[in-house]
Amino acid sequence: MIKNLFNLTLFLFIVLHVNAQSFWKKSDESGFQLRSAESRSIIPDKYQTFTLDFQGLKTYLANAPLEMSDAKKSETLLLEIPMPNGKTELFKVYESPVMESEISARYPDIKSYKAYSLSDKSKNMRFALSINGFHGSIMSLSGETYIDPYSSENIQDYMVYDVKDHNPDTYKGVNLCGVEDESRPEIHHFNPTLRNAEEVELRTYRLALACTGEWGRVTRRGTKEKCLADMNTMINRLNIIYEREMAIRYIIINDNDKLIFLDPATDPYENSNEGKKLVGVNTSKLNAIIPSTSYDIGHLLSICFDIGGVVSGRLCNASNKGNGVTCNNDNDLSRIVTRVLAHEIGHQLTAGHVWNNCDFDGEEAQFHQGSAVEPGSGSTIMGYAGTCGVDNVVSAEDDYFNVRSLEQMYEATTNNAQAYLCATKIQSGNHYPVITMPSKTYVIPISTPFELSAKATDEDGDNLTYCWEQSDTGETVPLGSQSASAPLFRSFKPSATGDVRFFPRAANILSGSFTDKTEVLPNNSRDLNFRFTVRDNNAAAGGVIWGDYKISSTTQAGPFKITYPEIDVKFQVGQQVNVTWAVANTDKAPVNCKMVNIYGSFSAAIRNDDPNLVPLALNVPNDGSQEVYIPNKVSNFFRVIIKAADHIFLTSSKIPSKIEAPTTPGIFFETQQNYVKICQPTEGKIDFTTTGLAGFSDDIIFEVASELPLGTTASFSNTTVKAGQPVSLIINSVNVKGNQSGQILVRAFAPGLDTMERLINIEIVGANLSSLQTLLPENGSSGVVALPKFNWIKKVDAETYEIQLSKSPDFAGNNLVVTKETVDSTFTTPVILDKSTIYYWRVRAKNNCGAGDWSRISAFVTEALSCNVYNSGVQSVNISASGTPSVEISLQVFSDGTASDVNVKLIKAEHARLVDLVAYLVAPSGKEGLLWSRKCGTQQNLNLGLDDQSPDFFQCPINTGKVYRPESVLSAFNGESIKGNWKLRIEDKQSGSGGRLQEFNLEICSNIVLDQPYMVKNDTLKIHPGNKRTITKELLLAADNNNSASELVYTLVYAPSSGILTFNGNPISAGARFTQEELNNAKISFEDTSEAEGSDYFSFTVADGQGGWIGITSFNILRDTDFVNASVDYSISQDIYVNPNPTNGDIQVILTGKAISLTNYAITDIAGRRLLSGLLTNGKTDISLNELSNGIYLLRMFDGKTVISKKIVKI
Asked: Could you report the per-residue pLDDT of 69-89, keeping only the tens digit for each?
């Protein structure tokens, strides 16, 4: 079988390569000769050279199927592509235009293609063909690779190089970017986890890409076709980044050739060499030439020397959507996209600068407080890499966005934002990964390395990459400096091994060198916020998701470090060594690390899953010393690493030691299981290997040399073995009560020669995790506050609890409001709940052995209030920079009533110095409430809400869109008349900084009196086993004095366990909804699948849509052979024969007597999912079950009126 599979694989590989075309030939650069018209503007540090049959390739690609067409599914065009290692790789190629159809037709020689590697799912490329030759961009997990002509005017000879190997100094001495006030970024707390496993939408935007005459007339261009060809190349390279990072694609519009100018004297732009003067006029210039409705985003290419690029507009904002400029000052298209164009387009998608400090004149104005999450210059696309002198983190930016940039851009382009609504959406077939963040938070000692880890899965099997990034936005500080809140750690490129990140990098930890200014360990007490970002690198449309994680450092502990062996020492295999370390108060609060793990590191291993990281002693006390045995491995590069057990900090010996072979005979035994966890009532097994040292080959005797943990027993597989033979210790936990932990000392000896001992740590984990009981909010509670506390009864064996809160008892999708793991038996929801809404909640206990069953679902309804939100709309109320002005926005309320809850939904303003501001809410009566006073220092701009019930106290920054508790309670307005003018007043207490008050939204609620629905009928359904019966209003009826039957909505909480509840004949499950009217119209039925006597039930809630409800109620079902259902003639069942049953393959259904009238059949599983169906013919029907796995199924036979069910078993 294996041989046949190998032959098939080999055959397919050969066939693909035979059918593939290779127009590339590896060539020697020495054979290239520049003609007089040719010049070289791109000279990477390293590259490979190839020769291309350009015309042959062009002809071949005329047959490429169109991406996103039906032909893509059936046609495959294969092409060999050169790689930077000098070899070629096979790709599937599709035409993928980045220009609209009409302009593509006018310039048929300008083409764009997308290609997918056959050997690496995560590797894809975009390339362009034109009069300017072939330009390719390959994206892979290792980075971006370009293929460019060797020289200008040359479409035959090419360079293949990694982008990181080419870093021109085009912008040396020039401010890299400018962002005008209109494009200042706003930071929102966008929640990506809501996208878990959802399908990724590819969003496309129409791009109007203009150029000045200065850009259009340069030597390599000079015609509209050549200009458009360069634009086509640039957008291909832009798209390969945005498709992976944002699932966004830009398409050049049909009229774009009208925006290309070749003569500075006739183009519509003045001051073309000054980007800052161009940016504010580009939208109006575009709109004067093409319709404003024909594009979503506009941008201008020019040659300018005041700046690298500048933006003052936003995508899809009609008034300034074209206000973006990129200064492309030479013929080099290799770095312009990543360094400037992708950066400036990012600004147009609301992304701010991520750099924290830049040693360059004039850059202070470009510091963005809300997004400055990278130390120094930063290293990602929205940073200033290579521009900031002593603050440079790297010399050139990497080709990915920091997660803070992603957050800003996703917020602007998803969730019905303006830029989402104007996009063209295409379903990609890809799905977002699902992320699992660590549940525990830690306090770490100062000046001590630490590691963070998380996990993710992807249902499409894409190659995931991971990236841990710090997300703190503190004050600006020089690179390498400390503060209470500034970022300390740079971002590193996402990688397949990035699920675990060491701070600082592993090489620095292993050498004990902590002087890298781009990764600074905290030496003060502070919070450290991180984000874990997962990319699926899907070539069609990348799915990106992230999660937040917070730790803190303390000066009460640390640094934690090894004192022996700190530097190089010579050891022998099997030598007993006393490892020592400085505990530095890490065993005390607030760090509380009681146990540590000690490892031997070979080949610079540091990850727990690296086989070269060898356990020496696991889960031993953090007391500063531990005896260990040197491993049986001769090495010149051996280090000791100590990691906190159940914590995240670690340390390493600084200089590698040497392990030499022993010189005298002896014994050695070891295990990879110094720590063993046993889940009751299973057995634990510890496997040992034995070795004779220096020629020893006699018997080794094993014994347990200590007391056993209470209730355990232990035995060896053999007590005597020859050197080199394995032995196992089996520990039985059947008689252990609850949780137990302890140590077992295992001794091995060769009589009269040598003795060796190893200490094994045992943890036995209890299994009593079931029957968890919820307490508060009580099941059936009404009028629950919008920020409730949850409580349940603790389980002794539980380590953590998982709570879920949902608007539906299906606890799935967007209905799921909260899913959280906590160590306590109380929990406060982190989100403010909607009013007059039914919520369902459940909790389960967990420990290291697994999770218990979910508790019974409880339901409650939040307080019933009549709420209205009053919106000011977008305004521009000037806050003068001179004097101490007071400004207001008023909201007129015309309704009568008394306030019972007042919340500020939104305050949005621009201001250069927030500490100058004091804010008040003023009721129509004149009553005032202080919202906040003089907060947040020199931070800029407002974007926040205020609510007494927010889980977050007032804290900076306040430009994030979050909701905080105000300085004075808003409940002070309860009882006020709601009618009249409500005012937001902002007072500026210090002259010199001004701004604009832009928006004010206020929610006012008043109490309402509810008329609750009630049950009129809730009788037991009596049914004959194996049959089906409609549930009528004579059995189940709810009523309400104010609502009709169509307004009373049942929600199914628990479905029947022995049958199927159906709506219109289709099975329904928990979370399904139906109305009383639908029940009255015989839409709801129960079909028994047990064919046995007994009882069953389903449970439900009823809501009237106005806040009234009936809590979880059960509807009982009783199955008994004495019951008669008038809708079914039970004698028919006796006329049906199914043989054989059980069966291992086919069955034959024979109909006799009255059963001859049955015409159709369906086979379902026990959950009611239809698997097979067909017609019953001539009284005898053969049905094949070969497609079904072994199990119990239901054969349903019917004729439109009668339904008969038979249970069948496949074995």
From this structure: 765 556 789 999 999 999 999
- Please give the CATH topology (third level) of the domain spanning 867-1006: Jelly Rolls (2.60.120)
Strand 675-679 to 754-765 pairing? parallel
If one looks up domain 1130-1210 in CATH, what number appears? 2.60.40.3080
Q: What is the pTM of this model?
A: 0.71
pLDDT average, residue stretch 1116-1141: 74
Angle at 551 between CA 191 and CA 849, to 5 degrees: 85
**Phi, psi of 984, deg, nearest 5:** -100, 125
Assess whether the region 21-165 and the region 429-554 belong to the same CATH fold. no
What is the average pLDDT score of the chain?
89
Instruction: Return d(Cα 416, Cα 286) in angstroms, integer.
Output: 26
pLDDT score at 1167 = 64
What residues contact residue 304 under an 8 Å CB cut-off, 6+ apart? 272, 273, 274, 275, 278, 325, 327, 329
Q: How many CB atoms lie within 10 A of CB 1182?
A: 9
Report the SS3 class of residue 763. Answer: strand
Residue whose entry in the numeric block shows the structure tokens 């502990």: 557
Q: Would you state the structure tokens that stand for residue 974, as one six-digit string?
A: 């309860």
Query: What is the CATH T-level fold of the domain 183-205+245-418, as seen in this structure?
Result: Collagenase (Catalytic Domain) (3.40.390)
Rg (alpha carbons) of the chain, rounded to whole number:
35
Split at pLDDT 50, 70, 90, the class of 186 is very low
CA-closest candidate to residue 576, choices 503, 628, 647: 628
Give how far Cα 181 sits from Cα of 175, 184, 417, Å.
17, 5, 20
CATH dotted code for 774-863: 2.60.40.10
Measured distance CA(282)–CA(180) in Å, rounded: 14
Query: Which CATH number does the domain 675-765 belong to among 3.30.1300.30, 2.60.40.2310, 1.10.10.10, 3.30.428.10?
Result: 2.60.40.2310
Structural element, H or E, at residue 443: strand 443-445
Element (H, E) at 228: helix 224-246
Q: Which CATH class is domain 1014-1119?
A: mainly beta
Pairing mode, if any, of strands 886-893 and 901-911?
A: unpaired
- Please state which of the four CATH numbers 3.30.70.980, 1.20.1270.50, 3.40.1360.10, 2.60.40.60 is assigned to the domain occupying 429-554: 2.60.40.60
- Cβ count within 10 A of residue 379: 27
Question: Where residue 407 falls among pLDDT bands split at 50, 70, 90?
Answer: very high
